[in-house]
Each structure stands twice: as C-alpha cells, then as structure tokens.
User: Fold this.
Amino acid sequence: MNGIIKVAALAALAVSAPAFAEDPKSDTALPDFATLDKNGDGAISKDEAREQSLVASRFGELDGDKNGKLSSDEYEKAVDRSKAPNP
Assistant:
C-alpha cells in the first residue's frame, strides 16, 4: 500500500510540474527592456512601467538614482533579482 501512495504522489508531482513553470506571458515574468521602452529612448518611464504590474509596483525601489526613469542597468538588476531563487 505504501508503494502505491509513493507512485501516486510522484505521478501527481510530474503532472503538476508544468503548472509551476514560469509562463513568459504571465504578469510576473519580466519582459525584456526593449518591450517596456515603448518610445525607444533608452529608459523606462513610470507610464511605460504600467505595462507590467510588478515593475510598476516596485518602480521607486528599482529606480536607484531616483531620476524617475529605469535605465537598462537598473532594469537588468530587477530581472536578475526576479530570477534568483528564494531561500
């Protein structure tokens, strides 16, 4: 009986694994810089950041130099942090 439970548990994990994979279209997956930099000026404004709720909600924190724009370096730091495993 114990073996059947283990097999069932492993099967459930295998089937559910894709549900935990990052969906590039989800609102938590961060798009590349150029996608958000709609006007191509080399920075993401607060208005442009509204396209992605995570960026918009953390804009002030991500804007390291507090100039009201996210540079590609500031944005890449955010992307790197979002990919880091949570302990």
Summary: The chain has one domain: 23-83. The helical segments are 2-20, 33-36, 46-49, 53-57, 59-62, 72-83. The beta strands are 44-45, 69-70.
